[in-house]
Every structure is written in C-alpha cells, then in structure tokens.
Amino acid sequence: MDVAETLFAERGLDATPVAEIASLAGCSVGSVYHHFRDKTALLHAILERLSLEMQATTQAILDPGRWKGAPICAILQGYLQFLMEVGRTRPCLRVLDMPEVRQGGLMCEHLTAVKREGLDALYRLLHDRRDEIGHPVPDVAIRLVLDLIVGILKGRRDPFPYPSLLADLPDDLFVDEVVRAAASYLQLSSTKAEP
Questions:
Q1: What is the pLDDT along the chain (195 residues), one digit of tens a residue?
Q2: Cα→Cα distances 69→64, 127, 128, 185, Å
Q3: How far is CA 1 from the centre of its chain?
Q4: Contact at 8 Å (CB) between 134 and 186?
C-alpha cells in the first residue's frame, strides 16, 4: 500500500501499472490481486488508512486540553505549523486530491466528513475564545478566516488551476503571515502567539 500510495500521488491511478507496484513492493502481481480486486480497491484501502490517520492526528492537534489557556494566534500558528510539517513529511497525501478520489462517491463523502470534523474542532477552539475578537460579528469572522485558510493552503499545496503567489515563501514565514492576516481581520485583542 505504501508503494501504491506514493505512485498514485505522483502519477495518478491510470498511469500506475499494477506490475510496477508489485515490483517496487517486492511481491508478485498475483499477490496484489489476491489482496485487492483491482487498483480502485487498492486506492480505497489507501484512502481508508489515510482517513483513520487524519482523524487521529486531527483529534490530537485540536484537542482542547492541548490549547488550554492559549490565545487564538497560538492555536492558528500551532495548527498551521502542524499542517506544514505534515505536507513536508507526507507528500503522498496528494493522493487525496486525485480526480478519482474527488469523484469517488462514498469514499469522497467520508473524507470530506473527516476534514469537516477537523474544521469544526478548530472552529470550536476559536469560538471558545471569541472574547478576544474585536470583529463586530465574531462567528462570521471565524468562519471566514477558516475558509480563507483552507483556500490558501489548498492553493499552496496544489497551484492548479490558480497559481499561488506565496508558493515560494518558506513555511515559517508563510505561517506567520497567515496568522498575522487572520489576527488583523479578527481584530484580536492580542496578536501574540504565546499562551
């Protein structure tokens, strides 16, 4: 599955022959087909594994106990640094953006639900600190900031069809600037990231 995940992320499903997956994994083609009906079944197994991994890591990074006493800027900075690290260490996560995944019915719906759980958890963390927010409508401001963050991260990870003007910015500077922009829009009473 690791080999298939890497190849699918680099080339896509159709451009990845089962024979190459088997060869790089050190097994036979028959062995691959013994465990998986076809490449689509293999992709579904990979997505299920990624889904469970995403749930666990999201729950850990957004656990309210982890952020007890931390201001909004610290939460956003920690969350974004975590995502940058995941992007650096797990480039195979690009498999989640494959057309076969986006159009994949139930698996696509499941992955969207997992991503939504994480976004909802981050929303709750920020909403619990709404007294820090000077924006006249804190709820709307939080939702807008989170949507902007999702969009800018997606554009940074996959600049097609809209190229990112920040793609060449080092991760730490990118995180600082996104947090600074969010703090400005939210009109935070404190823009320090320290708890």
A1: 999 998 988 888 899 999 999 999 999 999 999 999 999 899 889 988 888 888 999 999 999 999 999 999 999 999 999 999 988 887 677 777 777 777 766 677 878 888 899 999 999 999 999 999 999 999 999 999 999 999 998 888 776 677 788 888 999 999 999 999 999 999 998 766 655
A2: 10, 14, 11, 22
A3: 20
A4: yes
Among candidate residues 97, 109, 114, the one with its CA nearest the CA of residue 158: 97
Q: Which two tokens stand for residue 176?
A: 């600082």
190 secondary structure, DSSP code: -
Taking the C-alpha atoms of residue 20 and residue 7, their distance in angstroms, rounded to an integer, is: 9
pTM: 0.84
- Catalogue all structural domains in the chain, each as residue range(s) with its CATH number: 47-186 (1.10.357)
Burial 65-80 (b: 16+ CB within 10 A, else e): eebeebbbbbbbbbbb
Q: What amino acid is encoded at 192 in this protein?
A: K
Q: b/e for 125-137, b at 16 or more Cβ within 10 A?
A: bbeebeebbebee
Q: Assess whether the previous peptide bond of 161 is cis (omega < 30° from 0).
A: yes
